[in-house]
Amino acid sequence: METPWFVPPSDFLGRLSGSTRDALYALGHRIAYRKGDAVFQPGSPGDNVYILTQGRIKIFALSPVGRTVILWFCFPGEIFGLAEMARAGRREVASEACADSEALVIPQFRFKEFLQRDGEAAMLVVDLLSCRLRGLADMLLNLTSDDVTTRLVKLLIRLSARYGKPVSDAETLLDISLTHQEIADMIGTTRQSASTALNALKRQGLLSVKKHCIHIQNGKMLEDLVTNPVTAAAQTSAGSSLQIVRPF
Amino acid sequence: METPWFVPPSDFLGRLSGSTRDALYALGHRIAYRKGDAVFQPGSPGDNVYILTQGRIKIFALSPVGRTVILWFCFPGEIFGLAEMARAGRREVASEACADSEALVIPQFRFKEFLQRDGEAAMLVVDLLSCRLRGLADMLLNLTSDDVTTRLVKLLIRLSARYGKPVSDAETLLDISLTHQEIADMIGTTRQSASTALNALKRQGLLSVKKHCIHIQNGKMLEDLVTNPVTAAAQTSAGSSLQIVRPF
DNA sequence: TTTGGTCTGTCATCTGGGCGACAGTGCAGA
DNA sequence: TCTGCACTGTCGCCCAGATGACAGACCAAA
After folding, report:
1. Whole-number Å distance between alpha carbons of B122 and B127
2. Positions of CATH 1.10.10.10 in chain B
3. What pLDDT digit, counting tens, does each position of B158-210 carry?
4. Which CATH class is domain A13-141?
5. B60 CA to chain A: closest CA distance, Å?
6. What is the CATH number of domain A147-239?
7. Residue B218 in contact with residue B231, Cβ under 8 Å?
8. Could you give the dihedral angle defined by the CA atoms of residues A157, A161, A167 and A173, in that order, rounded to the nearest 10 degrees?
9. What CATH number does the domain located at B146-239 have?
């Protein structure tokens, strides 16, 4: 596909040269987090930049009403907590360890100096932010124009494109453990609706779930569901009499 | 207010030094656009960066279903078309002149060189992208947790904070001409719903509209509507028997 | 092995707002 | 001055999905 409809992620650390990376590592110190720990919270000073070395953390926004919107995940090697760096403002989003994790914590001013010296690295940061920007624009579009099922399918495709381990031809294992609540928070719906939509896909034989990890059985068909919904619906209803996915 | 709930914008050109600005201007050439012209479209090569010198342009995403999501506006002095710069990919969003406009068009590779040389400017770009990132995160949050009226009110506050001309104490004039369709596209709803919500606010005496420009009559009360909805609803219903804005 | 907490699955109910429809307004160009 | 097109205002219908409720599954710690 020439232009994938989902936004490919940007890999920051992986694109730094070895020596640059070492220089960067020398600027900070390591901190460990237990599952569920907050790395930073809205309102806390944004005076550090983080590079995840182990585990997984999620970046999310909280509404006063109590709703959570998961903006993105960070995996080892990825950098986060950047947005407040430039102007050293307060955090407006929250971050929490999804598993026991460890991060390299770099004081904001040092990282800034580092970037000013190394134009190459600065461009990578620009690239990274651009990617995330597009990612959010994409979410926004999904949210306003797709129904829950479609949003869920697109999420799965996006996740598997980035984090999936191919098992066989069409099968992919997403070995990141997600609760239904988290899935819901990623596509802007409720736990119940996410649960229902997920089970509908399960019943169609498109995926299975074991130990909170999603196993995509038929990636091709899953993609058809969003790129060409009409024929996809026809296909699935041919196999089973279930007609859960709307024709358009 | 210590931490405004809306995201303040970042001013790129205004924060460059005079000489740097001149250097930047020397890198590109000017192009004029008529109202309604597309500056770039999804799929077109992202090989330029733009600095608006006159007029106003909007950046928006288009869904295959035909829905439009306006991501942000650019005003004179602002830079846009950045996101595809770093990796020189294809455009994923569209931009269109809202009025007759003129922009300085800089080839992507030149701007990149410029940034690599000037660490200061690079940091401003990082800052700019961070701001937009937060802006989109905010929209995402609004979209999932607020109803149409609240989204509209928040939009108005945000716009007036940035582009409003204070007329008197509580009165502000937003002299950017917006159609109901555009308003709808900014808050992820339909033209009809935006129209209805806007008229409800009009009837409450909070604003008036002349020549497609919104005149905010009572900014304070408008803000109360979203920061403390319960009392605000009580206030308004005391004056008129209309009870359009939901209590919470 | 029990217990408590978190997560899942699935209802029945209610409603915000999407959608189509259509009449009215007003500007811009002939 | 006329004509057409783009925009506005409002209604009624209808449904996707939010909400609340509750029973069962699973797991980790005691």
Report:
1. 9
2. 146-239
3. 998 888 888 887 789 998 889 999 999 999 999 999 999 999 999 998 999 98
4. mainly beta
5. 9
6. 1.10.10.10
7. no
8. -60
9. 1.10.10.10
Q: What does pLDDT average to in each consecutive run of 10 residues of chain B (248 residues)?
A: 47 80 90 91 91 91 92 90 80 92 92 90 89 93 95 94 83 90 97 96 90 86 72 44 32
Q: What is the mean pLDDT of residues A35-44?
A: 91
A134 touches chain B (CB under 8 A): yes
**Where are the domain boundaries for CATH 2.60.120.10 in chain A?**
13-141
Task: Pick the more confident residue, A224 or A70.
Answer: A70
Contact A129 B127 (CB under 8 A): no
Of A residues 196-215, those with CB within 7 angstroms of nucleic strand C are 196, 198-199, 209, 212
Using the beta-carbon criterion (under 8 Å), do B132 and A133 form an inter-chain contact?
Answer: yes
Position B27, amino acid: L
The tens digit of pLDDT for each residue in A157-192 reads 999 888 888 888 778 999 899 999 999 999 999 999
